[in-house]
Amino acid sequence: MEESVEDLYVRALDLTLEKSYAEAVAAFEKVIERDPKYMDAYHGLAMTWMQMGNLDQAIAVEQRALVVNPDEQMSFSNLSVFYRKEGMVKEAEAAKGQATVLQWRREAKEKKKEI
């Protein structure tokens, strides 16, 4: 029986914690292949690349996530961190600004629901 997407995702996280990075990357990519809208898999994959010291790949993964969901706040937050680590201050500030705007929009929607 094929492993569920959720189980595969949890296995990918465990592999990252065990520092089995190449296996974790493969598992995260399999999750994304099976469910391209599984945003947590993109974030896990990006963080794994960052832990491996490959910020270019981490940035590329979050940019892929934004193609799928242009309003993914976590992608912008992660990009801000990755850009800052690369010394790309202007890009880091722009990504952080976008993440903040998305947070404000989410909060405004939640307040409307309360009324």
Residue share in helices? Answer: over 70%
Sketch the major β-sheet.
none
Per CATH, what is the topology? Serine Threonine Protein Phosphatase 5, Tetratricopeptide repeat
**Overall pLDDT metric:** 95
Write down the overall geometry.
flat
Number of domains: 1
Which structural class do the helices and strands define? mainly alpha
Amino- and carboxy-terminal Cα gap = 47 Å
Which CATH-level-2 architecture?
Alpha Horseshoe
Number of E-type strands:
0
Poorly predicted residue ranges: none
Query: What's the gyration radius in Å?
Result: 15 Å
Q: Report the CATH C-level class.
A: Mainly Alpha
CATH 4th-level superfamily: Tetratricopeptide repeat domain
Determine the strand fraction and express it as a percent band.
under 5%
Number of helices: 6
Write the H/E string, N to C. HHHHHH
Task: Give a brief rundown of this model.
By secondary structure, the chain is mainly α.
